[in-house]
Amino acid sequence: MTCFRDFTVSLWEIFGGNLLLFVALVFYIAWWTKAFRPNRDGKTTGAGFFIAVAFFVGVAAIAIMSLGINSLSQAGSRILVGYILLGAIVFYFILLAITIIAFQRTVTAELLLIIVWAALEGAAIAVLHGSGRFSMGQALMLVTLVVLATGVGIVCYILYYRLDELSRFWNGLIPLIVDAGVVTVFLAVLAFF
């Protein structure tokens, strides 16, 4: 086990993008904690800064990871990445309809963020497995974690407006913490194995 074994530019882009995703999640958690903590006095000084940093770092993460995914894609994994992205678009609109019609859930950006994150991680896992960087076992473990985290995010998204203030606060934090944990595992597998 050697840290950053045989890293290429593409691997650094995927690693760096995931590291930026982790930073974006930390700032998103800071924003959520500042802006939505129960019994707050109405003052959210600094909350705007936290969400702005989360947004810009998140956009940079997506751009950098996309470069790595694109350059690492080979013919086989490029098709799989296309299916992942198309599936994510279809899945988003199905979830959007279900959450609006069946659950009368107000639409917020979080649903889109959940699906974009899952698609990005899924595409990265696909090209890393396709290039031989991830074994089948590593890829399956990471896909399982991403699917579970996505499920947690969707359940929390649906439940949010049905909860009291304290429960909403924790309900909003849970998917962020879970995603940060999955990104941490992804980074460790990429760097050390």
**Major sheet description:** none
Rg from C-alpha positions? Answer: 17 Å
Got a strand count? 0
What distance lies between the first and last C-alpha atoms, to the nearest angstrom? 6 Å
Order of H and E elements: HHHHHH
Shape: globular
Q: Tell me the structural class.
A: mainly alpha
Unreliable stretches: none
Number of distinct helices: 6
Give the amount of beta strand, in percent: under 5%
Average pLDDT number = 94
Question: Into which percent range does the helicity of residues fall?
Answer: over 70%
Task: Reconstruct the topology from this structure.
Blueprint: H1 9-36, H2 47-72, H3 75-101, H4 109-130, H5 136-159, H6 165-192
Protein model, in words:
The protein is 80% helix and 0% strand. It has 193 residues and is mainly α. It is globular and about 50 Å long. The model has no long low-confidence stretch (mean pLDDT 94).
